[in-house]
Specification:
CATH topology of the largest domain: Alpha-D-Glucose-1,6-Bisphosphate, Chain A, domain 3
Helix content: 25-40%
Bound molecules: magnesium ion
Number of domains: 3
Shape: globular
Number of helices: 14
Number of strands: 19
Structural class: alpha/beta
Length: 453
C-alpha cells in the first residue's frame, strides 16, 4: 500500500492498487491533514476511472468537514489556475498524468496552484496509521459543483489578455492525445488568431489515438500532420495536460531544452534574471542562457521542486527535461498552454521558422538509462559513488543524486524513489565520448554494489 504514495503524488492501477475505497480514505487523510477546514477545489482528467475516483475522494474529503468545490473535467493547469485565482485553501486533481490508461491517482495542490512536496509524506502517514479525523454529522463539508466550461472560460480570458494575436497565416497542429488538453488547446489557439488542425482531440480515457506520454515514439502522427498541413509547429500534450512536446515545421520533435532556451532568450531580451533548469537538462542550457545574459540555477528533478525553486530565486522561467515549463509572469505552476502560445507569439513576432531557431542551438548526444539496482541497496550505492567522486578532483554536484562534470560531458545518477533502479543521464560532446562515459558509469555502479554487499 505504501508504494502508491510517491514523492509528488499518489498513483497506482485502478481497482488493483487504488480502489474507490482507497480513494475515499485518501480524501479523509487529505481532509485530516487540512484539519477539516477550508475550501478545496477538485478537478479531474478524462480517464475512465477518474469520475469514480473523484466521487469517492470528495466523499471522504467532505466527511472531514472541508467544503469541496468540484470543477470536473478540466486540464490540470486550468484547475491550478482556479485554485490560485479563486482563493481556495487547497486543491486536488485526479490523474495518473502520462501513465497508461489503467492507472489513476491524486495530486495535491497549495493555494497558489503548485504541488505538495514534503506534505505528501504527512498525508501518507495519516493514511497508513489511519489517524483519520471525521467531523460530526452537523459539521460535514458542502459539495458544490462548478461548471467546467465557466472555469475554462475564466482561464482562457486570463491567458489571452496577456498575448497579442499571431499573424493571420499562423498554423498549428494540436495533438492532446485524447487527454484534457482537448477541451482547451484548439479553442484558445483559434482565439489567438491561429489556423488550427487537430488529431486525437476529444477526451477519451482509453487513449485510443496514442499512448498518453508525448515523446518521439508516440508523436509519429503529429510529425506527419505538421508536414502535411505546412504548419508552423505541432504541439502534443499528455493526459492531464501539464506536459507539451513540440514538433518543428520540418516534422522533427524538438528537444525540450531547446524550447526552454528559445523562450528564455525572448524573456531575457526584456529583463535579465534567473532561469531554472532541472539537473537532467542538457549542458546547452548554461552556454545558451549565458550568451543571452541570463543566469542558470539547477534544481532537483520534479515539477513540485521546480515550483519551490521559482519562489526561492524569483526566477523568470523554468524548464524540465520532462516537458514541464513554468512562466512565473502568469503564475508559479507549470502550464503547457501558456508556453505553446508564447512560442507562437515569438515565431510570429520574430518572423522566423522554428526549425531555423532549433538548428541555431548546438545538439549533443544524450541518453537516459535505467540501471537495475535492488531497493535496499540503491541509496547506499549512490553514497558510495559520492565518496568515490568527491576525491576525484572533478566538479561534483549533490543537488539530486550525484552529478559529475567533465570538460566534454557529464553524468547524473539518481536513485529512483519508487522502483529498484538507478537513473543514469549522460551527455557528451561526441557519441564516442558518450559511450565511454556510459560504460564507465555502469562499471562504477557494479563496483559500488560489490563493495557494499
Ligand atoms: Mg502530466
Amino acid at each position: 500500500m505504501e508504494y502508491i504514495f510517491r514523492a509528488y503524488d499518489v498513483r497506482g492501477i485502478f481497482n488493483k492498487e487504488i480502489t474507490p475505497e482507497i480513494a475515499a480514505k485518501i480524501g479523509i487523510a487529505f481532509g485530516t491533514y487540512l484539519k477539516g477546514e477550508g475550501k478545496v477545489l477538485v478537478g479531474r482528467d478524462p480517464r475512465t476511472s477518474s469520475l469514480i475516483m473523484e466521487n469517492a475522494f470528495i466523499s471522504g474529503l467532505s466527511a472531514t468537514g472541508c467544503d469541496v468545490y468540484s470543477t470536473g473535467l478540466v486540464p490540470i493547469p486550468t484547475a491550478n489556475f482556479k485554485i490560485w485565482q479563486g482563493g481556495y485553501d487547497a486543491g486536488a486533481y485526479i490523474t495518473a498524468s502520462h501513465n497508461p490508461p489503467e492507472y489513476n491517482g491524486v495530486r495535491f495542490r497549495h493555494p497558489d496552484g503548485t504541488g505538495y512536496t514534503f506534505q505528501n509524506e504527512e498525508i501518507k502517514n495519516i493514511f497508513l496509521k489511519e489517524e483519520f479525523k471525521l467531523s460530526d454529522w452537523k459539521n460535514v463539508g458542502r459539495i458544490i459543483y462548478i461548471n467546467p466550461e465557466k472555469t475554462l472560460r475564466e482561464y482562457s480570458d486570463y491567458i489571452l489578455s496577456k498575448f497579442n494575436p499571431v499573424y493571420e497565416k499562423f498554423k498549428v497542429v494540436i495533438d492532446p492525445g485524447n487527454g484534457a488538453a482537448s477541451l482547451i488547446a484548439p479553442y484558445i489557439f483559434r482565439e489567438f488568431g491561429a489556423k488550427v488542425s487537430t488529431i486525437n482531440c476529444y477526451p477519451d480515457g482509453t487513449f485510443p489515438g496514442r499512448p498518453s506520454e508525448p515523446n518521439e515514439k508516440n508523436l509519429g502522427d503529429l510529425m506527419k500532420a505538421v508536414v502535411a498541413t505546412g504548419a508552423d509547429f505541432g504541439a502534443g500534450y499528455d493526459g492531464d495536460a501539464d506536459r507539451v512536446v513540440f514538433v518543428d515545421d520540418k516534422g522533427r520533435v524538438v528537444q525540450n531544452e531547446k524550447i526552454g532556451i528559445i523562450i528564455s532568450k525572448r524573456i531575457l531580451e526584456k529583463k535579465k534574471g534567473i532561469i531554472i533548469a532541472n539537473m537532467e537538462c542538457s549542458m546547452i542550457v548554461e552556454s545558451e542562457i549565458k550568451k543571452a545574459g541570463g543566469t542558470v540555477k539547477r534544481v532537483r528533478v520534479g515539477d513540485v521542486f521546480v515550483a519551490e525553486a521559482i519562489k526561492k530565486y524569483n526566477a523568470l522561467f523554468a524548464m524540465e527535461t520532462s516537458a514541464h515549463y513554468f512562466f512565473p509572469e502568469f503564475y508559479t505552476f507549470d502550464d503547457p498552454i501558456v508556453v505553446s502560445l508564447k512560442l507562437g507569439e515569438i515565431l510570429s513576432e520574430w518572423g522566423l521558422k522554428l526549425s531555423e531557431m532549433v538548428d541555431e542551438i548546438p545538439s549533443y548526444p544524450k541518453v537516459m538509462e535505467n540501471i537495475p539496482c535492488p531497493d535496499e541497496k540503491k541509496f547506499k550505492v549512490i553514497d558510495e559513488l559520492i565518496n568515490t567522486y568527491k576525491n576525484s578532483g572533478l566538479p561534483v554536484d549533490l543537488t539530486d543524486g550525484v552529478k559529475v562534470s567533465y570538460s566534454d560531458g557529464w553524468f547524473l545518477l539518481r536513485p529512483s524513489n519508487t522502483t529498484p533502479l538507478i537513473r543514469a543521464t549522460v551527455e557528451a560532446k561526441s557519441n564516442d565520448r558518450l559511450q565511454e562515459l556510459l560504460k564507465m558509469v555502469k562499471k562504477e555502479i557494479k563496483t559500488a554494489l560489490k563493495k557494499i554487499s
